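As a warm-up, study this chain.
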Amino acid sequence: MLTNYFPILVFIAIGIAIGGGALLLSRLIAPHRPDTEKLSPYECGFAPFEDTRLPFDIRYYLVALLFILFDLETAFFVPWAVVLRKIGVYGFSTMIIFLLILVVGFIYEWKKGALEWE
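Now compare it with the structure written out below.
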């Protein structure tokens, strides 16, 4: 049974070795001359003009939630439509339940005002 997992373990070990080797090699070869300019915080080439710990506007998170909502819908709709005849009524009813859950998320976004741009 464990022999089936051996190629996966070898793949993981090679990945860790290559990643760790690249980090170690860059640490040994790259010049290390930090100064105040290199260590200073920056924001798109400019000095930061506000505190970085300010909270984001809630609309940013709502737009991200909306994107995930429609992305999930699209990702699950296409395979479902391809095999709809094979899965029958059970598959259709589970997709309707899934869509109802997504509609609840959409209504939440709508009520919070994520669809209105100022």
